[in-house]
Design goal:
- With about 80 residues, this protein is mainly beta.
- Helices cover about 0% and strands about 50% of the residues.
- Strands 1-4-3 form a three-stranded antiparallel β-sheet, with no helix packed on it. A two-stranded antiparallel ribbon has the order 2-5.
């Protein structure tokens, strides 16, 4: 990834539960710890409830600040949660 860039990845989310549920996206365990000052993860999910066994295609977008400095490599966890 380059400063000022946006990088996309398509993923599929499936509700394995028995009832409609809400879906949310969070991140965690950033390394280095200052990476979220320069990197942000978003998605194009529309926020509607996901029915039981329904699959939805979403795009994750990693945005990199043009002012990023001092970060040669990074890692983080992507957490997609489904709650009824």
């Amino acid at each position: 990834v380059e400063p000022g860039s946006m990088n996309n990845v398509t993923v599929y989310v499936r509700n394995e539960g028995n009832v409609a549920a809400n879906v949310s996206l969070t991140t965690g365990n950033w390394n280095p710890s200052n990476a979220p000052n320069y990197l942000a993860l978003s998605w194009n999910y529309d926020g509607r409830q996901l029915n039981s066994l329904e699959v939805v295609k979403v795009t994750l977008t990693l945005s990199v600040s043009s002012s990023v400095h001092g970060i040669e490599s990074f890692s983080f966890d992507i957490i997609i949660s489904i709650s009824g």
